[in-house]
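Review session, final week

We close the course with one last complete record, chosen because it touches almost every idea we covered. It is GNAT family N-acetyltransferase, a protein from Blastochloris viridis with 136 residues. Go through it on your own first, then we will talk.
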Amino acid sequence: MNVAEHDYKAFEQALEPLWVAQNAANGTDMAKENWAFVVRDEAGRVVGGVGGHIKWDWMYIQHLMVAPELRGKGAGRELMQKAEELARSKGVVGIYVKTLAYQAKDFYLSCGFEVNAVIEDMPKGTSHYTLVKRLG
């Protein structure tokens, strides 16, 4: 046996068949459906968006960003409503998101999410949150 450092992308590609086989043997589907919604300004430029994937009957919000001039004007809430509508139409169990204390934690709480986990000092001096919203 030889353990050595390896390129991460090549590592993922080499091990993916093993992960798929292990999960398939346990009845876990590895299929992932990507999704996204964007907000455009009058000129057609993207000024915000939300996106992620659905996997294992859960929706993951990987990215939510709204241009500074649109914050507090309902764009983020409208994006989250679109994401939740999609989640409900797909029959998912719930939605989860990861964020830092100085990012959008309070916004997600106002959208009905609950803190599921907190890692202190990630990055140092702040906290990393996982928030969950169960549907139905």
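Two points worth writing down before the exam:
The beta strands are 33-40, 46-55, 58-66, 94-100, 114-120, 127-134.
The chain has a mean pLDDT of 95.
Good luck, everyone.
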